[in-house]
Write a structure and sequence with these properties.
Elements: H1 55-58
Amino acid sequence: MSNDEQPIGPLDASLSPRYAGIATFARLPRLEDVRRADIAVVGVPFDSGVSYRPGARFG
């Protein structure tokens, strides 16, 4: 990592409320340009708190 790059960390809750904006994994900033990313975490909607056929799994 060069000196001009800032390390990526969770967003500061005093600058932006936790409930505002796009929800991301571990409250990390959302990256638009992922060409230099070493690892990507992709979420899959899953709702285990409902009955047999929840909408998130079966559309």
